[in-house]
């Protein structure tokens, strides 16, 4: 088994929330962490544990007013890191690279167990994991922002692409 470091420049997070005015988009890189792999079968297979971290201050929409409110609600000084750790992994379709992952997500100092389906690909000396999940920010102790008549809804679609060098 080999521990492969997450490439912070090639790994990305996308998040999309709805609001009373327009969609809110967040996109950032900067992931840190590792993925365990096993190449005994000839092609790399992911193994547990998988751990990723992201600096909460990197979560930004590009709108200064909204970003200030987001950073305030995330309390980035008090809770500077978003952490994900996979605890269970099941291969669903080896040929298609589909797997089911369950793990813990810690956001805003609150840890919740989540599960999702991910796609795993190996190419050009890297292994890539892609998945998405709809989360409710209230599950993490976060109140959706309201600014004047602008209201953000609590459900956020989060998509990640993790790239690690083999």
Structure explained in plain terms:
The protein is mainly beta. It has one domain (2-165): Beta Barrel (Lipocalin), CATH 2.40.128.110. The protein contains 1 helix and 11 strands; from the N terminus they run E-E-E-E-E-H-E-E-E-E-E-E. It has one helix spanning 64-74, and strands at 2-5, 12-19, 24-28, 32-38, 45-55, 81-93, 98-107, 110-123, 126-136, 146-147, 150-165. Strands 1, 2, 3, 4, 5, 6, 7, 8, 9, 10 and 11 form an 11-stranded antiparallel β-sheet that branches. The mean pLDDT is 93.
Domain module tally: 1
Fraction in beta strands: over 45%
The helical percent reads: under 10%
Major beta-sheet overview? 11 strands, antiparallel
Shape: elongated
Using only C-alpha atoms, the radius of gyration works out to 17 Å
CATH topology: Lipocalin
The named CATH superfamily = Lipid/polyisoprenoid-binding, YceI-like
pLDDT under 50 segments (min length 5)?
none
Structural class designation: mainly beta
- Global mean pLDDT: 93
What's the count of strands? Answer: 11
């Amino acid at each position: 088994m080999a521990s492969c470091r997450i490439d912070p420049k090639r790994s990305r997070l996308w998040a999309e929330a709805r609001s009373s005015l327009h969609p809110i988009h967040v996109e950032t890189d900067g992931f840190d962490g590792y993925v365990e792999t096993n190449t005994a079968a000839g092609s790399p297979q992911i193994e547990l544990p998988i751990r990723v971290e992201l600096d909460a201050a990197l979560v930004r929409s590009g709108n200064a007013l909204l970003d200030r409110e987001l950073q305030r609600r995330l309390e980035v000084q008090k809770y500077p890191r978003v952490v994900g750790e996979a605890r269970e992994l099941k291969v669903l379709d080896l040929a298609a690279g589909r797997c089911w992952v369950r793990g813990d997500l810690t956001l805003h100092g609150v840890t919740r167990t989540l599960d999702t389906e991910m796609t795993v690909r190996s190419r050009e000396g890297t292994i890539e994991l892609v998945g998405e999940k709809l989360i409710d920010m209230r599950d993490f102790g976060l109140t959706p922002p309201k600014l004047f008549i602008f209201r953000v809804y609590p459900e956020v679609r989060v998509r990640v692409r993790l790239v690690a060098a083999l």
